[in-house]
Amino acid sequence: MTGQRIEVIPKDPNPLFTKWLKEWQSEAAKKGLKSQYALREALESLKKYPLPLESGRDCAILKGFGPKLCMLLNQKLEEYKEGHLEEYNKSVNFGEQIKEVAKKVKEKQRKDARPAKPKTQGKKNIAEDCSADEQVLMSPGSFDVVLLVDTQETLGKNKKTLDETLLYLDSHKIKYEVRRLGAGDFCWICVDSAKHELLLPYIIERKRMDDFASSIRDGRFHEQKFRLRESKIQNLIYLIESYGSNQHVGLPMTTLLQAATNTQIHSGFQIKFTDSHRDSLLYIATLTKILIDQFQNKVLLGIPKEDIKPINITDSNFVGLMKFKEFNEQSSKARSFTVREIFIKQLLQLKSLSVDKALAITAMYPTPSSLLAAYRACNSTDEAEKLLSNIRGGVLKRPIGPVISKIIYQFYNNLSD
Amino acid sequence: MSTIQKSPSKRMKTMDPQKLELKNIREQQRRIKPGECLKFVRVLIDPECLCAGLGPQILQKLGELGIKYEVQSQKIPRTVLWERAESQTLASSSEMLKLSDKYIRESQALFIMLGEEVIEAIKNKSMHNQLQSLTKAYPNCSITLLIFGLKKFCRQESTNVKRYDIEKCLTEIQIIYNCSHRLFETSVELAAAIGQFSKAIAEIPFKKQQADKYSDANLFLSNDNKDCVRVEGTAGLSRLWQQHLTRLPLVTLETAEAIISKYPKPKQLLEAYETCDDGQNLLADLKIRRAGGPLTTDRRIGTELSRKIYTLYNSLDPNEKL
Predict the structure, then answer these.
(1) Same domain (yes/no): B146, B237
(2) Residue in B167, B188, B248, B251 to test binding to A, most A beta-carbons within 10 Å
């Protein structure tokens, strides 16, 4: 049984402060004082704040709370505490409240789980298994092609981009949905009347020139490319969008153009350059129409990722496609890692330890535990310090060497510096 | 190939075979390295590529980069192709390398079109025919279209071809023939692109070797990231401990700090696991401190994360999921 995180959001975390601010504001409004506007602003920001605040002073972190207002609240709170101490203590004990909520949630889950149980018995069990890898077959005319836009594409930095994107798609009458995609920014699914979803083998990663530069600088670029390739989608499209005159993007254009060309030649992406966001949208809209044209008269069959074969779009009328769900689950960043995978990642944190060396060490000692056992089996400190030094890795079969071997020994075995 | 070292010395003949093999591999690795690898490719340029004033820029660029080229007629005019010297990737003695002067065709082709030709091809719907003859002439090649002066032509002439028609045509050939395209307005940019393609093609063997490494491990690996820790003597070991802990998904810097404040060295955590009865829950109640100020609230590490960390350090099954 795995644990579960429950998110508790209090409906009104600061009832007293809210009440007093409201009172003061209406008073000020009656008298026509200017302070009513300041109080209204304070009230607005207090409403947005999700956690209980212990004192008037703590309110200072919120917008609209100046030192004077904080002091007033503090005074009022002290007065209130004198009169209603017990009541007050009960209301501030946030921890207790959370525990209560957690208890309720658990009870509710238990109740919900009960009626579900019979399903896992007898015939129904078999029926359920079938639906898990149910045959999905779509014949021409029975499905719609829908463009999926990643939420990242729409969230965050630039709300304007989202509005522009969605408005544009609306005006071109393109069916789309905004969803969280495990990889890429745009892709297309075929949806039938039973809401089955098959993924067309095209995926777009959109990068504005400045994002492109910063992703190269911080290393995300390689990782993203790797994840996209792992998705086994046949056609990966890297859409690179100009940012103004591309003069202040963080890296010289020659570097960026070489990186784009490398992405095409080494990683097999198709590269598309566009001049502006609008230009990118024209491309995406055009591509959507072409894909509808190309696929609407085909018979589609849902097949597992490992059976996916390259499609020759012009001569096959029958194509195997991945289920969207499988794509999104497998390519998600949050996939679970194995003990060895984490161990490799840990070893790589040491500056001089190359990928080849980390792979060589974990080929010999695949878990931290097995390495530690080997240290314990050594007869002397000297032997343990050199334990890894002769392990060889990479094409050139270079040894790990005594320096790294000693650092790793010390890392796991030192009790003091 | 002039760049490959001449006759092997007598000493090498007496070297034991294992060492000799290693030496050969080392030499082969040197030849595929970025920089060195450019010497092993050559560009084949159809003479018509040098039309429309493009010639001087292209040849100058390739000269600058030190890339060999031959101007020779190709099956289809206006194409650029590449060949790789077999000796680049051959891991064998230098004697054999000297014998092998063979070039092998790479599976990339560029096709240069002028802006007005693209517009013409859209008008008379001949673009598909062009691509079909290209794919026939260069089977198994990825074709990239280099288009020169399209914007300028559209600005200057009234073409009756809409922006959407151009986009549609170019996107169609991308989808149907897997053909990417690039637009250039100056001959310098176009020549630079041929240089970029040459560089990228020269590095293919090196990049492939690197990529194979990752696909073996089935996850993305790199140790050139800025967070890697340099350790000298014992300096840096505690930061390394922090980095190790944050490799686990969901372990934030604060979580790592909470663990480190109780177990400043890995050994202390490992010993605690050995001596306690319930290792799985050892860390569960450890408090995570958040930033100071009124927002400070305590949070536990929790049973789930505690169990994961326990598994990482105590499991002997490398494939156990965390």
Answers:
(1) no
(2) B167
